[in-house]
Structure formats: structure tokens, C-alpha cells
Amino acid sequence: MSIATRSVPRTIGAHAILLTYTVIALFPVILVIMNSFKSRAGIFGAPLTPPTPKTFDLIGYTTVIGQGDFIHYFQNSLVVTVASLFFVLLFGAMAAFALSEYRFRGNSLMGLYLALGIMIPIRLGTVAILQLMVASGLVNTLTALILVYTAQGLPLAVFILSEFMKQVSDDLKNAGRIDGLSEYTIFFRLVLPLVRPSMATVAVFTMIPIWNDLWFPLILAPSEETKTVTLGAQLFLGQFVTNWNAILAALSLAIMPVLILYVIFSRQLIRGITSGAVK
Amino acid sequence: MAADIRPKRPFRWHIGVFLAPAVLVYTAIMILPLAGTLQLSLFRNIEQHQVFVGLENFRMLFGDPNWSVGFWNALRNNTWFFIIHMLVQNPIGVMLAALLSSPKLRFAAFYRTAIFVPTILSFVIVGFAWKLILSPLWGVAPHLMDLVGLKSLFTPWLGKEQYALTALSLISVWQFVGIPMMLIYAALLSIPEEVIEAAECDGITGLSQFWKIKLPLILPSIGIISILTFVGNFNAFDLIYTAQGALAGPNYSTDILGTFLYRAFFGFQLQVGDPNMGAAIATMMFLIILGGVCVYLFLVQTRLRRYQF
């Protein structure tokens, strides 16, 4: 190591810049969560101080829980995300296996066809997707959202998973074949367990945009029954523009589940990105 | 078995079984609607019938002042939105990644995790949180600017026509800077130690090492980030919709193609929704994105030198 890479001022400078940016990144989030626990006077009187016994107040949370049907929205989001994730991972892994394992005519063409969707956003087909959903009576059902998100997640999943499936040893699969295992058994019992880490990476990548999406819930499933938490929060925030306690509490309630999941899975996510899964 | 006299290669049904679900869902929900949308843009609803009108919808979109003013405005705004991302988001992302990847940096994992937090939040949260912070009612932004003696510069940025779009672009940059940071960070980590050591032996260290050795090696990743930014920006909708509503106020100054498409397709307030014009706008977005992707694939990617280690 040369002296230059270890010099003290350089290290301090690096920390200063990174710390500054960390503050910029976290400040709005912390500000919102902090103020959601305060009374109205506290929010406006001293927005930058943490709640003190004098300003501590849960009025915002009681309003939100009393007014909005957030538990129900939350369930909808959960159903949509988990179901789409399941189909993306299952179908994506199956297709990735077919593309990476077998040589057949049209293999690379099929790979290219499936990869199209990585670059072209599914949103551009919305006009016809809505017509399709109206025609099949799926408007305002969670099924519509699950179908759309499955289609949206598949291209990237197939792409990433087939890269990983190529690395599974051929000897293992051939040993399985000699033992008389069917191709299906080889896929489900031998290959899938081996690519589990990359499945987790794909899962995280697929999950975040689905959970946060506003466009398709707004267009395909805006009814009270099928609102997702993102859409519910959007409408709720629009209604309570002047009730700052309620707005801050609703924002915090929307932030916290994602933040907790992120803290749990951040290692997985970051390892996934930095291991070169997305090149 | 010995008695087996199958042909050399029986039809392998399992390939079809493995491929079918993904291909079916993908084709039915993504490719066909996309094609359907392109097709719809060539039709118009005349007396409850879809009539083929050729490029008439596009002529209206570009020429008829009812549409063209909005369209060119949205396209111009969208381009500015993209330029801000390229000029602010990606350089900051590269800089943060370069700092993070410096050897023996302590707390690197903490910084990495923290800076990525905004990226996982939904647009609804981001849009509203920033709306509150920049609101003159709450006074957080003026108060903060007062601390550094810049209070006089504060104006309600989101409410002023000349600043709103830039302010929103910067909010979006704040949200997504984690993505270029992570991808570049990954690229920097994959540069082999020997290359760096060789540079150090030649006396190339610090900043000049970054410019002369590392930057050329991560250019392919920068190319990918640029195209990802391009696709993401020309497809954006949620942030503007949450922060400024479907009318993309003030006075359409933050209108981008996504919000323009939404209003054209569904209608809003006095405007009546028109699926065919919506399809025409979506087609234009498709062509713009396709154009960008082609430029990237055929001009940029082939010219970037990839180094294999």
C-alpha cells in the first residue's frame, strides 16, 4: 500500500463526504418519523427536535388507524406481492432452466424475446392491458395486478437466473440422469436448491417495484376492496392535506415495514448487486 | 434399455413444459398488449366504431394545438428531467462509489446501506415527505437554510413554475442515487488488485489513479447506468403524480410524458379520456425508449472497450 492511499486527510475527507451524503439520504426519513410522534404544536414549533415528553403525542396514529382501512390495504399489497413473487420465481426459474440447460432450435431467439421486457417498460402497454382486463372481467381484482406484475418481473428474473443456472455443475445433473431422475426432478430437487441464493436476489429486485407501484393499482384496481397500501396512502394523503399529524403518521406507517424488511435483507440485496448479478 | 429403439432424439416435451408458463404470461400480458397499443394508435373511435385512420392521431399529436402544445411541453420537460439525472445523479453516484470502494474504509457497509434507503421507498412516501419539507408552511427548509445563512434564497420551489421541475428532478435524484452507486461500486470492486498495484508502482495514485485507471475500466457500467436512467426517466410518472397531481402543476410546468399519457388516456377534470390518443402517446414513448436502447446497443456498447480479467 502506498502512503497516498492511507493518508489521514484523504480518509477524513472521504468520511466527511460520505457522512454528509448519508445525512442527506436519511434526514427526510428521520424527520418524518420523528415528527409523527409529536403534537401539532410540536410539529410546527420545533420540527427538528426529537419528541420530548411535552410534545409527544400519538394523535396522528389514532387518526390514521381510525380513518383509513390500512390493515386491509396492507393485506392486499401483501397478497399481490407474495403471489407475483411466487409466480415470477417459479416460472422464471423454469424458463431460465430450459434456456440454460438444453440446446434446441430457437434457444437464443427465445432468450432475446424474453429479454426484450427488461428494456421496454410494461407500462407502455397499459391502454391494451386495461382493455384486456375489462374484456376478461378482471378489472378491480387482485388477479389483474398479480398477472401484470408477474409479466413485469419475468424478463429480469429469467435473465439473472439463467446466468446462475449455467454455473450449476453438469456432472451433478448427468449423475442424476444416470440414476434415472426425470428432467423435472432434476430441476426441482437438484438445481433449484443450488440457485437459492440467486433466487433471493431476484426476489428482492422483483419485490420492491411491485410493492411501491402506483400506476397499475391506480388504473387496474382502484376500488376500495382492492386498493394496495401505496394507492391507499396516496389517496389518504390527498384527503388529509391539512391534518399534518395524520399525514406524518401515515407516511411513517408506510415507511416502517419497508425499512424493517430492508434492514433484514439489505445484506442479501447488496451482495446480490455487487456479486455481479446485474452486469 | 437394450431393447430401446427410440429415434436418436425424441421430442423433448419437458423443454416446452419448462418454457410454457413464462412465455405464455409474458406474451399475453406484456407483448400482445404492447403490440395492441401500437395498433390502437392507428385507429380512432368514430361513432362507437374503431376506424383505421393511419397516422392521423400522430399528426394531431404533433400539429393540432390542443395536443401538440402539451406534447412538446411534456417532451421538453422530460428531456430536462433526464439531463438533470445524467448531470447530478450519475456523477454523485460514481463519486460515492469511488469513495466507498477505497480500501480499508471503515463503516463502508453502514454508508452503503444508509445511502440506499431512499431507493427502496415508494414514490408516494418520497413525494409527500419532500412536499412537506419544502413547504413554506412547515418551515423546515427555510429554517435549515437560515442555519447556513441562505434564508433569503428560499422560495416555495415546488409551487413556482420556473423551479418546480428542477426541484422534482432533484428529489428523484435523491431517491435513486443509490442505484448508480451500487452498480459502479460493484464494477470498482471487480477491478483486480494487480492492476491497481501496477498503477501504484508507476506512481499513479489518488485522483489521477481514478481518472486514468479506474474510470476507463468502469465505462461499460456507466453506459448501462445511462441507459437505465434513460428508460426510467422517459417512463416516469409516479413522483410527479404524487407530488403535483395529475395536472402536473403549477401550470403544467412539471408535466412529463407519463403524466401526459395518464391525462390523455383517462381524462382528467374537463378533459375526456381518449384511449386512441393515449395509445399514440404510449407509442411515442415506446419509440423514444426504443431509440435510446438502440443508440446504446449499437453505438455506445460496441465502442466501449471491455476488459476481461
Automatic annotation (TrEMBL), chain A:
The way this protein sits in the membrane is described as: Multi-pass membrane protein
**Is the keyword Hydrolase in the record?**
no
Report the subcellular localization. Cell membrane
Alphabetical list of InterPro entries matching this protein: MetI-like, MetI-like_sf
Q: Which residues form the ABC transmembrane type-1 domain?
A: 74-265
TM region positions: 12-34, 78-99, 111-134, 146-165, 186-211, 244-265
List this protein's GO terms for biological process: transmembrane transport
Q: Which parts of the chain are coiled coil?
A: none
PROSITE patterns the UniProt entry points to: ABC_TM1
Record SUPFAM superfamilies: MetI-like (SSF161098)
Q: Which keywords does this chain's UniProt record carry?
A: Cell membrane, Membrane, Transmembrane, Transmembrane helix, Transport
Q: Which GO terms describe its cellular component?
A: plasma membrane
Q: Which domain of life is it from?
A: Bacteria
Family assignment from sequence similarity:
Belongs to the binding-protein-dependent transport system permease family.
Name of this protein: Carbohydrate ABC transporter membrane protein 2 (CUT1 family)
Source species taxonomy: Bacteria, Pseudomonadati, Pseudomonadota, Alphaproteobacteria, Hyphomicrobiales
Automatic annotation (TrEMBL), chain B:
> Could you tell me where this protein is found in the cell?
Cell membrane
Annotated membrane topology = Multi-pass membrane protein
Keyword Manganese among record annotations: no
What are the record's GO terms for cellular component? plasma membrane
Q: Does the keyword Nucleus apply?
A: no
State the SUPFAM superfamilies in the record: MetI-like
**What PROSITE patterns does the database record attribute to this sequence?**
ABC_TM1
The UniProt keywords, alphabetically, are:
Cell membrane, Membrane, Transmembrane, Transmembrane helix, Transport
Q: Quote the InterPro entries the UniProt record gives.
A: ABC_transporter_permease, MetI-like, MetI-like_sf
Domain ABC transmembrane type-1 stretches? 75-298
A single BP term in Gene Ontology: transmembrane transport
Say where the protein is mainly found. membrane
**TM ranges:** 12-35, 80-101, 113-133, 163-188, 217-237, 277-299
PANTHER family this protein is in?
A: ABC TRANSPORTER PERMEASE PROTEIN, INNER MEMBRANE ABC TRANSPORTER PERMEASE PROTEIN YCJO
The UniProt similarity line reads: Belongs to the binding-protein-dependent transport system permease family.
Q: What is this protein called?
A: Carbohydrate ABC transporter membrane protein 1 (CUT1 family)
Species in which this protein is naturally found: Rhizobium loti (Mesorhizobium loti)
